[in-house]
C-alpha cells in the first residue's frame, strides 16, 4: 500500500507569512497532485507534477516534485485568509488515487 | 461548482439500516469514482466505474456496493450500517479512465449513523 504522509498536520499563521507543506512517501509515484478542500466542498485540483525535480507555480503557490518522485512540497508566499483550507497531496492514477493525510491551514488577519 | 451533483447532502440514519447515495457526473464524463472521507482514515478510494462497468476497486467493504446506470449516473449503496460508517462520501468524475485525467469532486454526502 502506498502511503503519503503530510506535514505539518495543522498550521495556523497570520496573513502575509510564508509557509511550506510537505508530502512524503517511501514509494515512487508517476505523478503527484495537490488539492485544496474548503469546508462543505469536495477537493479541487490545484496542480499535477509529473517529472522529478519539476517546479510549478500558481500565483503565490509553488509546487515542487522531488527528484526521486517520492516527495513533493507546496510553498505559499504571503498567505491570505482565502488560502485557508485542507491541502491534500495525492499520488497514483485517477483510477486509484492515494491521498495524503492532509494539512489543515488557517490564515488569520 | 464542479458540475458533479450528489444527493442527499446530509443523511442521518440508524445502525443496521441501508442508504443509497446518488451521483450525477459532469456532462460528458464517462468515469465515476466514489471516495470516503473520515477523520481517522482520511480520503480513501472506494470504487470506480467507467461507462457502466466496474473499472477499479479500492477499500470498499462487502456491505457496500455501487453501480453506474446507462445514463451514467451512479449510486453507492451502503447496508447494515455501523457507527464507523459515518463519513463524508464523495463522488467524482472524469472524462475517461486514462491516467492523468483530471477528476472533479462533488460536494459530498454527509452520512451520520446513530
What key phrases describe this protein's structure?
heterodimer; A: 109 residues; mainly beta; five-stranded antiparallel beta sheet; 51% strand; B: 114 residues; seven-stranded mixed beta sheet; four-stranded antiparallel beta sheet; 11 strands
Q: Biggest interface and which pair forms it?
A: A-B, 20 and 27 residues
The description of the largest β-sheet of chain A is:
6 strands, mixed
- Counted beta strands of chain A: 11
> What is the helix tally of chain A?
0
Assembly state here? Answer: heterodimer
From the alpha carbons, calculate the radius of gyration of chain B and give it in angstroms: 13 Å
Tally of helical segments of chain B: 0
Largest pleated sheet of chain B: 7 strands, mixed
User: Got a strand count of chain B?
Assistant: 11
- Give the overall pLDDT of chain B as a whole number: 94
Mean pLDDT of chain A: 93
As a percent range, the share of strand residues of chain A is over 45%
Helix content of chain A: under 10%
Model description:
The complex is a heterodimer of chains A (109) and B (114). Chain A is mainly β. Chain A contains no helices and eleven strands. The mean pLDDT of chain A is 93. In chain B, the strands form two sheets. In chain B, strands 2, 4, 5, 6, 9, 10 and 11 form a seven-stranded mixed beta sheet that branches. The termini of chain B are far apart. Chain B is 0% helix and 53% strand. With 114 residues, chain B is mainly beta. Classes of the chains: A mainly beta (109), B mainly beta (114). Chain A binds chain B through residues 30-31, 40-45, 48, 88, 93-102, and chain B through 2, 4, 31, 33, 42-45, 48, 55-56, 58, 90, 92, 94, 97-108.
Amino acid at each position: 500500500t502506498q502511503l503519503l504522509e503530510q506535514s505539518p498536520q495543522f498550521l495556523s499563521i497570520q496573513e502575509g507569512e510564508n509557509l511550506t507543506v510537505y508530502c512524503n512517501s517511501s514509494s515512487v509515484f508517476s505523478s503527484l497532485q495537490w488539492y485544496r478542500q474548503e469546508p462543505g466542498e469536495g477537493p479541487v485540483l490545484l496542480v499535477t507534477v509529473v517529472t522529478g525535480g519539476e517546479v510549478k507555480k500558481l500565483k503565490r503557490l509553488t509546487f515542487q516534485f522531488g527528484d526521486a518522485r517520492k516527495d513533493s512540497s507546496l510553498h505559499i508566499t504571503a498567505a491570505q485568509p482565502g488560502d485557508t483550507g485542507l491541502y491534500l497531496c495525492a499520488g497514483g492514477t485517477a483510477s486509484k488515487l492515494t491521498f495524503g493525510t492532509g494539512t489543515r491551514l488557517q490564515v488569520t488577519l | 461548482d464542479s458540475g458533479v451533483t450528489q444527493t442527499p447532502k446530509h443523511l442521518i440514519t440508524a445502525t443496521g439500516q441501508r442508504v443509497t447515495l446518488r451521483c450525477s457526473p459532469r456532462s460528458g464524463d464517462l468515469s465515476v469514482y466514489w471516495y470516503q472521507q473520515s477523520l481517522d482514515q482520511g480520503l480513501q478510494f472506494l470504487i470506480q466505474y467507467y461507462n457502466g462497468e466496474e473499472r477499479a476497486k479500492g477499500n470498499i467493504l462487502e456491505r457496500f456496493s455501487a453501480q453506474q446506470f446507462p445514463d451514467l449516473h451512479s449510486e453507492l449503496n451502503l447496508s447494515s450500517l455501523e457507527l464507523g460508517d459515518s463519513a463524508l462520501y464523495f463522488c467524482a468524475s472524469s472524462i475517461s479512465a486514462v491516467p492523468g485525467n483530471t477528476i472533479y469532486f462533488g460536494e459530498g454526502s454527509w452520512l451520520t449513523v446513530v
